[in-house]
Amino acid sequence: MNGGLPIEFGSLAICDAICMSTEGMKWSLPSRELIAYSVETMAHAHGLDALVLVSACDKITPGMLIGACLANIPAILICGGAALEGKIRGAPLGALNTLEARALVDQGEMSLEKYTEIENAQLPTCGSCKGMFTANSMACLAEAMGLALPGNGTIPAPYAERMRLAKHTGMRAVELAREELKPSDILSREALFNAAKAGMMIGCSTNITLHLPAIARAIGQQLTLEDFDAISRDVPQTVKLFPSSTSTMEDLHQAGGMSAVIREAIQAGILDGKQQTVTGKSLWENVRNAEVYDREIIRPIERPHAPHGGLFVLKGSLAPQGAVVKIGAVEPKMRKHTGPAKVFDSESAGLQALVDHQIREGDVMVIRYEGPRGGPGMQEMLSLTAYIAGSGLGGSVALVTDGRFSGASRGGMIGHVCPEAALGGPIALVRDGDMIEIDMEERKLNLLVDQDELERRRRIWTNEGTQCGKGWLKLYANGVGPAAEGAVFQ
């Protein structure tokens, strides 16, 4: 439509929802690297002038953005958009999802017929899940960092407006090629900080602490957990979507979308509006005419949901290099909790303990050997966290892991514990009954065990929980860096 010759090629595309709680989840995060390298490979092998990155869920968007940065030719992203809200006889499903409902069925509190009704109503249209999970988080942050057109983050998948945006994206790609405007011209350190700050404002998935550092590394920049911690302390959360509330991506779109959020953040001095974007204009020029239409969905800066960002970085004797929690989805009473550890060397073992009613109020579940190297692949544990919530334990049981969560997780769920168990981190030394102290307000995560005892345990530690895998997973496990640095394959 604008004088270009399109050449289409496909990529890996794992749906986390389908492989959740199966061995397939081990391949999800590693697929990000394969996607990135496939984009880079095709761009260089065929001498392409520009890239249109047509993306969808979780690891696909960051994988394509990393690949575009590695190729460093003109590139622009267009995501598929979010699904609409599921309803039963006109009533929104709200916070209940099929994974939490499963726990109610197992406990005899919900019939299978009611569960099936919820299951069938959950996703009434095409599109990514309705809340601020990883897919929608990264789609929104692509706008904030300047690599997608305004509207990319929130226009719902079924809307004709999404199709129009896709056409404009393709047309703009041709102009980018003529202008030779590359990712390295756009992704300055300030642009990456814009994305991280926007993520704190809208309560993004914990997975952004993996993906933004990986994107930064691909362009020769750096974004650390310390940066996320500093940003979180200074940036207020003005948007709360499912699972932190019952509001959806469609609600955010109708309230003004990311453009309205970004405009207010620039006016408040939070984001840098001078940054270059794929429109050829500055970030401020993109959003200067945006308006807020619903002040409960997009709160004013001076009346936020919280004075801090939606993610916290915790440190302490259990996580010397850091751990991450989605604070906006944690009940106030769980923000400070000390309890006995119940230790499991895999997600499946922890889930089975829940099903068998072995977890009691006050416990701290510790799931280890699920980090990037130990899993391998750093599995996403939505089924586990949803089962805790569905079992009525979300307000009394905490979960600490070197694995990770979906953006859909809610409650006292602390992930990305570094160093991971496979590298001999303190989480590898925890035993049943050890007391674990969680103080999210003070951003602390401590193992309350005498140092001499820990040293004694370290001397007899054998690393038996690490799964070596084979093929690509073995290669990945041998080459992946720590989660605190974005779990980048090195």
Features:
18 helices; 8-stranded mixed sheet; 490 residues; 12 strands; alpha/beta; two-stranded parallel ribbon; 37% helix
Shape: globular
Distance between the termini: 40 Å
- Number of β-strand runs: 12
- Enumerate how many helices there are, as a single number: 18
Please describe the biggest sheet, giving its number of strands, its sense, and whether it closes into a barrel.
8 strands, mixed
Series of H and E elements? HHEHEEEHHHHHHHHHHHEEEHEHEEEEHH
Q: Which structural class do you get from the secondary structure elements?
A: alpha/beta
Query: Strand order within the widest sheet?
Result: 5-6-10-9-8-7-11-12
Calculate Rg over CA atoms. Answer: 22 Å
Q: Give the strand content.
A: 5-15%
Round the mean pLDDT to the nearest integer and report it: 94
Q: Bin the helical content.
A: 25-40%
Low-confidence stretches: none
